[in-house]
Amino acid sequence: MRTKDLVATAISNTFRSKLRTTLTVLAIFVGAFTLTLTNAVGAGVSQYVDAQVGALGSPDVFIITQASDATAAGDGPVKYDAASSASVSSQQGPPGTTTKALTDADLATIGDTAGIVSVDPIRSVQPDYIEYDSGTPYEFSINATSAVTTADLTAGAQLDGGATETQLMLPDTFVAPLGFASAEDAVGASVSIGITDILGERHVVDATVVGVSLESLLAAGAGANDALIAELADAQSGGIDTAVTSYGVAVAHFDTALSADAVTALKGDLATAGYSASTIEDQLGAVQTVINGIVGVLNAFAVIALIAAAFGIINTLLMSVQERTREIGLMKAMGMSGGKVYTLFSLEAIVIGFLGSAIGAGVAIGLGSALSAVLSQGLLSGLPGLNILLFEPLSVAFVIGLVMLIAFLSGTLPAQRAAKQNPIESLRYE
Amino acid sequence: MDSEWVIDAQGLEKSYGSGASRFDALKGVSVQIAPGETVAIVGKSGSGKSTLMHLLALLDQPDQGTLQVAGKDAKSLSKRAVNELRNKEFGFVFQQFFLTPNVSVLDNVILPLKIAGMGGKERRRRGMEVLEQLELADKAGNKATTLSGGQKQRVVIGRALVNAPRVIFADEPTGNLDTATGAVVEDILFDLNRSQGITLVIVTHDEELAARCDRQIYIRDGLVVSHATSTHTGAHTLTTAGGAA
Ligand SMILES: Nc1ncnc2c1ncn2[C@@H]1O[C@H](COP(=O)(O)OP(=O)(O)OP(=O)(O)O)[C@@H](O)[C@H]1O
Ligand SMILES: [Mg+2]
To answer: Is B17 in the pocket of ligand 1 (CB under 6 A)?
Structure first.
């Protein structure tokens, strides 16, 4: 039998028992539908994070903290040591951990490490409001690491770290409320930032908007260049210069010429010196890992559904083999080889798998795209640029391929039965 | 080459089951079939006729005895060669119709060609030719289930014939039919024998049909009880009743 004929026969056999085929296809449909959607969620979120953080990523930057004391429960309290415990119980570290502060001495040590070009402490400032042209003031915050990251621009340019002028990167949600006609309109405007110092006195600092950016998951708030941060920090300290000699986090630029291995080695050097250094990529990696974990769990559920569906395929085909005993016997009597009979039933399984997965994936794409559009207007409108369901052709093809493989494997048992049938016994079968 | 085409079976034995339920269906049967001959295998129900036919057609293997087809020992043939032989040289009419329901008459008829791997156009052409020959061309597109018994049997004969076989094995080809329809089917078969020289091996318990064949092999309880040659035929090799007790 020619391959073409085998395929055509398999397809037409599949539709012989329509109800049974439909029910089996439905079971596969559920699995393929779920798998397509979960993959799309994974891809959508990953792409968003990539765009957000990838854009953030200055590739030559370490975020440096003191290596956290692994105060595991059970170790008991750690004895106070005046030398090491100059602790800003920092808000900069991840929640639930206490980061010891970096002192100026630490910064010097880091700066002296071979491969590090420069090191700057991150100073956090808490402005009260922003106002334009004496209009309504709005509450607002500045992202402390914005000086070293790249914003997802909608207008204007990136911050210039070296500039002496005070520069601001405005989140695009502020454009309309502040009274600008458009993002472009805001670029170049001078805005006023109100800040209260530690003595309770209010100050106003002026800054120029150099760019407008989409708000990002990982870096909420406005961006400010070094000059603006310094000015705000000075205003915040109320002229009392003594307070801030320790910092939660520092940002170090390393030699851009370093290879990936050298960067890893450099991290190691810093670790031995007692500092934990991570690139923005590392930090993003952590986020990705969490998302991949969630998607993995969802995928596992979908695969369980597919395994259940596989038993449906086995059952359907076994019934089909049983029903067609005489037909199989006849074909074998007429010289069809066992191998061809095997192929015929395997193909039937694959056709069923293809039907279920193609319909499942198709419906998932249709419904998912609609849902995604609705969500991005509604529930997720706060995360511009997020396409919660991203259907990548390759991953959809992978799902279909996977389901067809599962179907093929399910088909092996019934197909083997059919192939082994003795023509005489089949022909005597009542 | 053609004249050598012959089936030569010696001392065939076949039993089913084992132990207490063992049943010896054939107990040493020798049969020779010459090219162009029409042979009837006659006997009561359960005497082993179908079993013998299946062995001769290489559908099953004997427990004992040798079988030569076209001068070759069947045991020495590969599985593939046996399949090829059944597909190209043999045509089958089984005791039941074995038509695939929900498939058109034409598709049923061309099944052996499809298995042989013939191209779609060619096999349709050949199928229609056969259906025309059997006066079923107008039913080509019908589902097999919609035909009458006689029509079904003609479709079955068409299927046995479509690959232009050398031998047609027919197991009770008229068993399911009334006398008139049965006669039509018989005529078709004998016509094929005359016009195309196709060898016929017909299993039957119908004496009248058997009498129309060149030769009759009578079987009882798994043994050949007598060979007989019809008077109306020319000189075919006459084999003595080897198994007669
Ligand atoms: N698979 C089998 N298992 C056990 N016994 C079998 C099997 N096939 C056939 N037999 C037995 O072998 C004997 C011969 O069977 P066979 O089908 O050859 O008879 P037959 O002469 O064709 O009869 P009929 O005219 O009724 O078709 C019968 O007694 C049958 O019961
Ligand atoms: Mg029989």
So the answer is: yes
